[in-house]
Specification:
Helix content: 55-70%
Strand order of the largest sheet: 1-2-3-4
Number of helices: 9
Structural class: alpha/beta
Length: 233
């Protein structure tokens, strides 16, 4: 009897401690890494203390069949106190979104930049050339660069590397968002990643898109500019 009570008390204390430590990693059934949770909550705790804004990260495998990511975020928003920003990743749908409440908080961070599929200027130019259907759309694609999540998620991985990719991508996006919210209020965060990880991503993307541009230029040269052989010679 005493043993069962002791185990029950230990279980309660463990769960209670985890709920406190995992406040800003609001939900995670994707990565499930204590070190990852510790890093996220360190940033979230410092951001809350210095700005009063709660930044929550939600990582779920899936949502209800007829539920959109926006509806899912609104459901979570109803359970937390404002001001709050909710960053959500749905693994099965590979969807990401950021919800701010009140909406005035959107002025404190650049959602389009954070969620941009392009990390570098070169990448945004390539995307504009390949996917833009109008001049205005091309300008928007080029302007919205510096993405800290989608460029990493786009990398091909297998097995355990995929989970690591998720943790790196969401940590970078969370840290980027926190830094921007803090900067909007004139403070800095000592616990965030800063610009170091972004500079590394930019370097990798610069090399990657440089290879793509080289391939495109080779194709265009061969297709339109290479002198044609004279069959009469």
């Amino acid at each position: 009897m005493l043993l069962s009570r002791g185990l029950a008390a230990l279980t309660f204390i463990t769960l209670f401690s985890f709920s406190l430590n995992a406040e800003y990693l609001y939900k995670d059934d994707v990565v499930n890494n204590p070190k990852f949770a510790e890093q996220i909550n360190a940033i979230g705790t410092e951001l809350k203390a210095k700005t009063g804004v709660s930044l929550y990260l939600v990582m779920t495998q899936d949502v209800d069949e007829n539920q959109s990511i926006a509806d899912f975020e609104k459901q979570i928003a109803s359970q937390v106190a404002e001001p709050a920003v909710i960053m959500t990743f749905i693994e099965q749908k590979q969807e990401i979104d950021i919800l701010a409440r009140p909406v005035s908080l959107y002025k404190h961070f650049n959602k389009a930049q954070i969620l941009s599929p392009n990390a570098t200027f070169i990448g945004s130019v390539v995307s504009a050339i390949m996917f833009a259907r109008s001049y205005d759309e091309a300008k928007e694609l080029i302007a919205n660069r510096g993405g800290t999540i989608l460029p990493i998620l786009a990398e091909k991985t297998k097995g355990s590397e995929t989970v690591q990719k998720y943790s790196v991508a969401m940590y970078n996006g969370y840290s980027d968002t926190a830094d921007q919210i803090a900067a909007a209020q004139g403070v800095t965060l000592s616990s965030s990643a800063g610009n170091g990880s972004q500079n590394f991503i930019d370097l990798i993307r610069l090399i990657f898109y440089g290879i793509i541009l080289y391939g495109i230029s080779r194709y265009l040269y061969g297709r339109f500019f290479r002198p044609k052989k004279d069959n009469n010679v």
